[in-house]
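User: Sequence for Replication restart protein PriA below. Tokens please.
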Amino acid sequence: MKQDSHDLFSPASPARSVPVLVPMPAATPYSYSLPDGMVAPPGSVVQVPLGPRKVVGVVWDGGENAVDARKLRPVEKIFDCPPLDPSMRRFIDWVASYTLSPPGLVARMALRAPAAFDPEPMVEGLRFCGHEPDKLTPARRKVLEMAADGLSWTKSGLAHAAGVSTSVIDGMVKQGVFEQVFLPPPPLVAPPDPDYAPHRLAGRQMDAAEIAVDAVKARDFSVALIDGVTGSGKTEVYFEAIAECLRQGRQALILLPEIALTTAFLDRFHERFGAKPAEWHSDLATRTREKVWRQAATGEIRVVAGARSALFLPFENLGLIIVDEEHDPAFKQEDRVFYNARDMAVVRGRLAKVPVVLVSATPSVESQVNSQQGRYTRIHLPTRFADAAMPDLHLIDMRRHPPERGGFLSPVLLRAVGKTIERQQQALLFLNRRGYAPLTLCRVCGHRFQCPQCSSWLVEHRFRGQIQCHQCGYAEPTPQACPECGTLDHLVACGPGVERIAEEVERHFPDARTLVLSSDLGGVKRLRLELEAVARGEADIVIGTQLVAKGHNFPLMTLVGIVDADVGLANGDPRAAERTFQLLSQVTGRAGRTGLKSHGLLQTYQPQHPVMQAIVSGDADAFYEREIVEREKAILPPFGRLVSIIVSADSRAEAETHARQLRQAAPQASGISILGPAEAPLAMIRGRHRFRLLVHGRRGSDMQGFVRAMLDNGPKERRSIQVQVDVDPQSF
Ligand code: ADP
Ligand code: ZN
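Assistant: Structure tokens for Replication restart protein PriA:
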């Protein structure tokens, strides 16, 4: 031992260097020297200088570097936090190479909790010294009774538990009854108890749970897909898998698409396990995020329910990953590192050797195919729990039941709303369009209000008196006069948004309590409160965007009206049918979850469309079968592979030229071809012109190798040009 430390500090010891992954878009780790005596195994979280800054990085694998370590800048500090384990490091490498992103940017996602790397400060506490105070008042006796267990207390905790004021305790400290000690900070959340309040599972649920529990028992990688209609008890089933994971003393991660809004989920978890899971999403206070990061790393936190980025938390002992609503587009990050958390969850599971459970009422076509081909175990729940009826779904053919002039709601739908609120039940009108109207134009000259920096229309938000761009956030007060011809008061709103539907509803039902739920009408806190109010029955008619679609349980909601079921079908995207099917199933699934007879009415101009037919017939299998056949024919994902490359620049010509040169730099590869460059679906965003190349390959093609070669051989990167690579794009 002595010998070792002597060697370490000996001036003769050679200078050593380590590779450190810094949170920068660099292709490889940078080398830093290690000061004598500093030990920094791979995974250590360190502070290093980078230019004029100090950054947090991770010591990477690869060992000593050939560079003369004496010329390097030194690692300044090793943080006192658990190192990122090898499977986490392989995960970061894997995500980087799959998404064609610099590993440092992926590592940055794993290190997004700046102050978490130093231990939390100890808190001041009290310990009973074993002797009584001089004068034993009743208040002091109560304190002694509480403190008799020999544990340490915080002052306020003890005062609260004994029901006395803190001054009583101050007096006892003065007399030496308690001594001041320092205690580790309390855990953020209490540990969940796997046996707190389990439900008795119904027959099919039992079989389903057994498969999921066995997967956890195997302590190895596997993927299961729980595919069951809304209300079939999927959540109950995966709670059993979580319980098993907790019994093993391991940690579980639940990924949810809209965790910030789903307080109902947290409450339900609490009822089942006697404690809440830790939350992880971007609306958390920084201090809380840091605590979650650290306590996930130390293992104190047992269950995290989080948005996609929770996948990059450094769990100490992960035993299970759940991806609920696995089909949801919100799992795709389209910023810097473009990744789909559902797919990367499967990768993380494989590298960490833990089971992954995907859950959805309307699985992605990808997951359907994987389960059909036997790569995923299918756990099927075809009926609602306790045989609660699914809502009765009907199409309203808008060609035969047109709304009155200037309106958007057919008389059939309005009658149904009226009946529902007469019964003191709730109606939901769903329209996935924020604001008042998607387009405003001048009736005199035809001028359309367009964003000055994007190729998109300005959307009128009447509640706020503005017209806004949904791409870049640009907003201006709603003008009175047309900027083109100057005519006053001749601007017309075209098409409906939720605010406009609310206006129509209020005209027909002036006495009803109407509520608009839309993400632009309040922060997360306000939306949470409003969703809870709806669940308590404190609104009669709710008009909402897709934020009402996810995971909520509204016991009195017995009518769901889809204002425009065709919205998503128009854009020519081959995934449009799948998305529309999923969204409509999910929204209509909000109805009747507690056994009340319920209805769904879908307004459509295309009642014969396969999506509409699939929804009303409830025949999801037929829909998927058709969809899968078509994808296979066209060699679209998952039967083929796509990478989208978007080149943007301030000038249109520069963007187009760069994209063309990129295309010319592509290698020859059989089975891979390139479409474009063509103007991207949004040709301009924030003043930058965008051109797109779409790389298409047969299954099994080395898409990453191909694109990497293209980028390496392609035109030199210039500051003015930005190239975004999106492997497995959402829309294509
Ligand atoms: P899903 O996740 O498939 O939408 P849930 O797990 O939310 O379905 O179940 C639907 C409803 O049925 C919930 O209110 C849930 O509490 C209830 N439920 C499901 N399974 C059981 C069970 N075994 N015992 C009691 N209630 C159950
Ligand atoms: Zn804009």
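Residues 1-13 have pLDDT under 50 and may be disordered.
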